[in-house]
Amino acid sequence: MNKFYALKVKQIIRETPEAVSISFDIPEELRDIFSYKAGQYITIQTQLDGEEVRRAYSLCSSPGSGEFKVTVKEVAGGKFSVLANNSLKAGDVLEVHPPEGKFIFEPGNKAQNYVAFAAGSGITPVLSIIKTVLSSEPESTFVLVYGNRSIEETIFFKELLELQVEHPERLFIEFIYSRTREENAQFGRIENSTVNFVLKNKFKETGFEKYFLCGPEEMIQAVTEILKSNGVPEESILFELFTTKDAAPVETAIDGEVKLTIIVDDEESSFTMDNKKTVLEVALDNDIDVPYSCQGGICSSCIARITEGKAEMRKNMILTDSEIAEGLILTCQAQPTTPVLKVDYDDV
């Protein structure tokens, strides 16, 4: 369930001064395992200074391209992102978990209109979706609203312009820059006025089937609110967080320790835990090999199902109300609220 595979780096592509794309060789025997849908991500596992580090990165390539590529933006004080941008080279081998994630696009058989709001490295899964729409739905259109600080820091700037030239009647891009004023681009950030300009002005005659949002939490919340205020149904809005604020611990009514049972890969483990910790923290403290990646509630790697007891999540931007009602939790955010808690990673 939580298996990683050794993949060789085929190529390192410098996208901006702070971002590189990593292209992988996928052996023929692993092609089915590493097949993916547009918008999904992979988890990369490495050992850095004796510590296991896992990071989730979205695929920027499209499923039909024959490529398998992610993009990594260097983060100040980061671990893997610094390695990727400064030391990683073709021929190196990384441990990679197969693609997963719920921020996906699956092609249909009729013409549709789509729009995406992306900021910074949030363009990564959106580019995969754009390419898939253009190649798989020949009558569909796509509007991209893409915010960055400057042209130099705009990941895939040249590639997006080339796609726009290739599909002038189907791909429309609104570039937005917060640090520089550029011709044929807006100045500022993606905010209410930006969304209203797209929906009520420039594309007011266009009805959109899906709205894809990817970037920091504040942007996603702001865009989601204005979309809803414009009558967009919640089920038409898909989003993926790339950064999020830390959530405060849950205040529970129970005192002392909790009996926690974890089922993963058909093996059951039980122990006591501090109710102020999350399920994932306790699993890792006890060397249980459970699936996880971001540990911040912004991916879906650590989902499990509660089969006994109850838990409350510090933060949830991934699971729907119906999924929570079915007992699903993000274990990196879930604290027990009953003296006994049993979770099953296999039953998701």
TrEMBL record:
PROSITE patterns: 2FE2S_FER_1 (PS00197), 2FE2S_FER_2 (PS51085), FAD_FR (PS51384). Keywords: 2Fe-2S, FAD, Flavoprotein, Iron, Iron-sulfur, Metal-binding, Oxidoreductase. SUPFAM superfamilies: 2Fe-2S ferredoxin-like (SSF54292), Ferredoxin reductase-like, C-terminal NADP-linked domain (SSF52343), Riboflavin synthase domain-like (SSF63380). InterPro entries: 2Fe-2S_ferredoxin-like_sf (IPR036010), 2Fe-2S_ferredoxin-type (IPR001041), 2Fe2S_fd_BS (IPR006058), Beta-grasp_dom_sf (IPR012675), Cbr1-like_FAD-bd_dom (IPR008333), FAD-bd_FR_type (IPR017927), Flavoprot_Pyr_Nucl_cyt_Rdtase (IPR001709), FNR_nucleotide-bd (IPR039261). CDD domains: fer2 (cd00207), PA_degradation_oxidoreductase_like (cd06214). GO terms for molecular function: 2 iron, 2 sulfur cluster binding; flavin adenine dinucleotide binding; metal ion binding; oxidoreductase activity. Residues 258-348 form the 2Fe-2S ferredoxin-type domain. The keyword Hydrolase does not apply. Its cofactor is FAD. Residues 2-106 form the FAD-binding FR-type domain. PANTHER family: 1,2-PHENYLACETYL-COA EPOXIDASE, SUBUNIT E, NADH OXIDOREDUCTASE HCR. This is Ferredoxin--NADP reductase. It comes from Antarcticibacterium arcticum. The lineage of its organism: Bacteria, Pseudomonadati, Bacteroidota, Flavobacteriia, Flavobacteriales.
